[in-house]
């Protein structure tokens, strides 16, 4: 459907957009519930690797991936706005991420660096695709529908990711010495990871058939007309990125929100990305127990995303996010006290994680989308990804350092509370109405600063 203008609040378009969340959420659940524990339990030797535990290594690679994306995503977002190719960029990065996910289960045990390299590419593909997916949101909604549509996207993803995780869990439970599949538990985990790539690619193709290209291409500036296309587009991307960065500094309340988001998202992403490795390495739980906890999170998050969408309609988007952040702070503290080798306390905590997970993610995305100029949405969501990835550098890095120094993940998980508290304080002083009104002051015209 390239070249067909996106229609705001169109049901078919919104359904296609939400179905991409269904597609990629299988990767989110499998990466957290199975890939992380598979890495710490099967790929990393029992004695660790180069003096580091699997839990510490996992935290470091998540941090490195965030740094790579921090460097490149604003430029890619600017280029996609200029070329009117958000859909094409989404397709490319989703297929790259899905294809490398297919390769993950073929990495042999003990090949730590190869595994981390392949996984890093899947992470880059996943996160980059999400930038262009998020960039559709201002094009297909209006201010009065953006919160509900964003929440619907997350809710659809939670069901899709939860359904695939349930299938993977059944496969793992029916495997092993007493199973009926003929697979070892390790073999079942490898099959589940491979199937995740198939799911991601297949439903991405389905979603894109219902998702039109919302933008229109601009002409290459005369001074770059003689350059190769790749060079010209890169120059355009860098110029627009620098111009936008300069403008951002003049919009106080948008920047205050961004700063708050950097802190509290750091805490959220750290808990999401590290929890599987923490449960396996620190709590001593098995892969199937961790998968059950993630399954609980996914299905509860469906209701949580919808509930917070309703809450935002009643009390406002910012207060609803504050409620979710208070919940996240309590969860990080509770994580410190979880007893080892007992799955039930983790399952109880998973219920609370699921409820607040959808709230903070969906509402942050929609609140930001209501503050930015529609004509540069991919560029601004590229910056949003930068803020997200920039923040996601330090939480996992802090976790890795603290767990390495103390030889325990417990003080590391407790240290994450600071990110939620600082984020709440900063968010409290954001004037949402003034930030939304400032959109009228943006003039994004080609490369003019």
What report would you give on this structure?
This protein is an all-alpha fold and 449 residues long. It has a single domain (11-441), classed as MFS general substrate transporter like domains (Growth Hormone, Chain: A). The chain contains 16 helices and no strands. The protein has helices at 11-43, 54-83, 86-103, 112-135, 137-140, 146-173, 185-208, 229-248, 252-281, 287-315, 317-337, 343-369, 377-406, 410-415, 417-428, 432-437. Helix 9 runs antiparallel to helix 12. Residues 444-449 have low confidence and may be disordered.
Named CATH architecture: Up-down Bundle
Total helices: the number is 16
Topology order in helix (H) and strand (E) letters: HHHHHHHHHHHHHHHH
Largest sheet: none
The CATH topology comes to Growth Hormone, Chain: A
Distance between the termini: 32 Å
State the total count of DSSP E strands: 0
Categorize the overall geometry.
globular
Rounded average pLDDT: 82
Name the helicity range: over 70%
**pLDDT below 50 for ≥5 consecutive residues: which ranges?**
444-449
CATH superfamily: MFS general substrate transporter like domains
Beta-strand content estimate: under 5%
**Please, how many domains?**
1
In the CATH scheme, the class would be Mainly Alpha
Q: Give the helix/strand class.
A: mainly alpha
């Amino acid at each position: 459907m390239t070249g067909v203008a996106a229609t705001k609040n169109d049901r078919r378009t919104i359904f296609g957009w939400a179905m991409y969340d269904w597609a990629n959420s299988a990767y989110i659940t499998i990466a957290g519930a199975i890939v992380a524990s598979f890495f710490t339990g099967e790929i990393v030797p029992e004695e660790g690797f180069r003096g580091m535990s699997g839990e510490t290594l996992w935290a470091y690679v998540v941090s490195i991936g965030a740094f790579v994306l921090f460097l490149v995503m604003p430029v890619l977002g600017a280029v996609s706005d200029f070329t009117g190719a958000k859909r094409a960029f989404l397709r490319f990065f989703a297929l790259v991420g899905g294809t490398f996910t297919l390769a993950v289960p073929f990495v042999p045990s003990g090949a730590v660096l190869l595994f981390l390299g392949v996984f890093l590419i899947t992470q880059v593909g996943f996160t980059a695709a999400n930038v262009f997916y998020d960039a559709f949101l201002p094009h297909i909604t209006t201010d009065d529908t953006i919160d509900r549509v964003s929440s619907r996207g997350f809710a659809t993803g939670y069901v899709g990711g939860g359904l695939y995780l349930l299938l993977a869990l059944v496969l793992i439970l029916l495997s092993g010495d007493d199973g009926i599949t003929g697979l070892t538990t390790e073999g079942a985990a490898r099959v589940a990871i491979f199937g995740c790539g198939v799911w991601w690619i297949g439903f991405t193709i389905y979603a894109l058939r219902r998702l039109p290209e919302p933008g229109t291409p601009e002409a290459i500036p005369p001074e770059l007309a003689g350059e190769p296309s790749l060079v010209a587009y890169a120059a355009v991307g860098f110029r627009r990125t620098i111009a936008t960065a300069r403008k951002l500094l003049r919009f106080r309340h948008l920047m205050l929100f961004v700063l708050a988001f950097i802190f509290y998202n750091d805490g959220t992403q750290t808990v999401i990305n590290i929890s599987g490795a923490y449960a396996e390495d620190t709590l001593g739980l098995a892969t199937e127990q961790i998968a059950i906890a993630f399954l609980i999170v996914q299905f509860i998050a469906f209701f949580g995303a919808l509930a917070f969408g309703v809450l935002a309609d009643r009390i406002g988007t910012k207060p609803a996010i504050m409620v979710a952040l208070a919940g996240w702070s309590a969860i990080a503290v509770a994580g410190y006290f979880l007893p080892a080798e007992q799955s039930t306390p983790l399952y109880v905590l998973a219920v609370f994680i699921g409820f607040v997970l959808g709230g903070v993610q969906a509402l942050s995305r929609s609140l930001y989308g209501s503050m930015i100029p529609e004509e540069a949405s991919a560029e601004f969501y590229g910056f949003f990804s930068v803020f997200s990835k920039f923040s996601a550098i330090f939480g996992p890095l802090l976790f890795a350092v603290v767990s390495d120094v103390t030889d325990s993940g417990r003080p590391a998980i407790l240290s994450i509370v600071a990110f939620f508290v600082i984020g709440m304080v900063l968010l409290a002083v954001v004037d949402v109405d003034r930030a939304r009104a400032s959109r009228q002051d943006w003039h994004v015209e080609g490369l003019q600063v």
